[in-house]
Amino acid sequence: MKKFLFVIIAVLALAPAAVRADEPIMTRGELKDKLLLYIPNRIMDLLDIFSVNIGVGPVAEARLMATRYCDVGAGIGITAKLYKDFNRQYGLGFEEGWYWSFIFVSEEQYTLTDSLGLVKRYAETRTGVPMPDTRTYDFFTGPRDFWAIGGSLGLLVDANLYIHPTEWVDLGLGFLLIDFRNDDYILDDFR
């Protein structure tokens, strides 16, 4: 508890230093949006903490991952999946390809070819150590979370479950009206 309070105090102490003295921290319109949508945004932040994807198809896969730097597993196949994924991707999609990984060295040729809903299409062909600055792992818009912790398992039926540590931070700071991931809804999103 002491560590948590220390982190909160440090964030609050350092946040004003990042803002110029002659600029307001938040306009009245932004404050109004944050207060009116406070509960819905915290609910969405809570849902963002985890991803669950379930699919069927000719697939064989087993993976355990504690960020892409510590990833062990292999998989090959084609699956039609139902997504509740990172960066608020909800819908259906078709994945195909293969991958293997051992700790921080991996190789993959993986594609999300077709999608319905909010699921983002992507293709990744890579050999070596994955890097968080790749477009696929973009912190705000990327379809994959570099920092995810979890795993997947499948043989004809495939399931993935991941926890997103950056979303935990976003949820915690969201209670203080700080939008770490820049994903809170505003009233203009509903017009």
Brief characterization of the structure:
The protein has helices at residues 2-14, 28-36, 38-48, 165-174; strands at residues 50-66, 71-85, 89-102, 105-117, 122-128, 149-163. The chain is of the alpha+beta class and 191 residues long.
Topology summary:
Layout: H1 2-14, H2 28-36, H3 38-48, E1 50-66, E2 71-85, E3 89-102, E4 105-117, E5 122-128, E6 149-163, H4 165-174
Antiparallel strand pairs: 1-2, 1-6, 2-3, 3-4, 4-5
Helix pairs in contact: 3-4
What does this protein structure show overall?
- This protein has 191 residues and is of the alpha+beta class.
- The protein folds into two domains: 29-49 and 164-191, no CATH class; 52-163, no CATH class.
- It has four helices and six strands, in the order αααββββββα.
- It has a six-stranded antiparallel beta sheet with strand order 5-4-3-2-1-6.
- Helix 3 runs antiparallel to helix 4 (165-174).
